[in-house]
Amino acid sequence: MIRILHTADLHLDAPFVQLGDKAGQRQDDFLKTFERLLTLAIKNEVHLFVVAGDLFDHSRPDSGLVGRVQAGLKRLADRGIVPVLIPGTHDNVIAPDSVYRRHEFPGALVLQEPSVEEPACIKVQGTEVFLYGFAYRSSVSEDALASLRRRGEDGLHIGLLHGAREGSPEWDYRKKDLPFNLALLKGLDLDYVALGHYHEFEVLSDEGRIWACYPGSPEGKRFGENGPRHCALVTLAPRSAKVEKLLCNTRTLDERTLDLGGCPGEAEAAAAIAALGNPDLLLRLTLTGVVEAPLDLVRLQALLAGQFFHLDLIDRTGLYDSRFARRIEDEQTVRGLFVRRARARIGAADAEERQVLEEAFREVLVRFRAFGGGAP
Prior knowledge:
Domain Calcineurin-like phosphoesterase: 2-200
CATH class of the largest domain: Alpha Beta
Keywords: Exonuclease, Hydrolase, Nuclease
Organism: Geoalkalibacter halelectricus
Radius of gyration: 26 Å
Order of helices and strands: EHEHEHEEEEEEHEEEEEEHEHEHHH
Mean pLDDT: 91
InterPro entries: Calcineurin-like_PHP, DNA_Repair-Maintenance_Comp, Metallo-depent_PP-like, Mre11_N
Helix content: 25-40%
Shape: elongated
Largest sheet: 6 strands, mixed
Number of helices: 9
Structural class: alpha/beta
Protein name: DNA repair exonuclease
């Protein structure tokens, strides 16, 4: 029996352009999470540290970052823990100057041939462990999935696959994503397949047996990868795998909705949003409800500076029947005419058109207010 820490999709050196001046800090978060994974591997006395692709976000990461990764993997190797890596879709080996062609990773086993001629074999506590993995190349990896098939009965047989499971909520067929299904995995007859590519934790089991696992991204890269993030601690025996989730993320992403119905102004709206604040939280917040005055999201962001690591506001509030809109509607002005016609059009629209019209209506009312149309 051996223990494995299985991770994938770390996406080190991702750019995070949308975070502005906090992009560098977020990149540091991802490196901290990598280092936390190393610590978890040591703490749990694992034998293998498996990264099933996309250790890096692209194939030409910063050389200083590569040095930090090399040092971290050597730290494991020096303690008798064997790092095992395969390239993914982001950090692929297609380019001649890709990271796995330019750099060595001392102490680590990097499986980067286009298919498995023979599995790599190492000894762990007297047991032979056979490792099956490859780096996809469109011209020479046609039968690469079949090359993962178990070669013998003795020892432990572990596959590494950066691929897309058919039927998954994240399913998106592309040839380079190496599409597979559970029946194919079972046909490989491996003791465990360490998967990467999809960013949510998922255990693939059937007939009372765990065949494979996606550990998901250990740090949320984009909204949708919300909440706690994990790696997989795998206890492996011949044709028997036990998987445990270990928490590992540095910061958390979340998406919520906040009803601001009846909110009289921006100060009150800011206070309601600030109540959700956490300096380690990246939050996408959708604002709903009928408000009494239009919200200026730029001003709200300024009022909330420091309450969140990052705040993304989406305005879905209604102004259609607000006091502000009704007051302007009574004016015998161009803007009064606009409000009357817009409200009539919105009232007659179907649900899909209404959403578009209300977004435009909000935008115009924010401008009206900015140029002298203050709320009552």
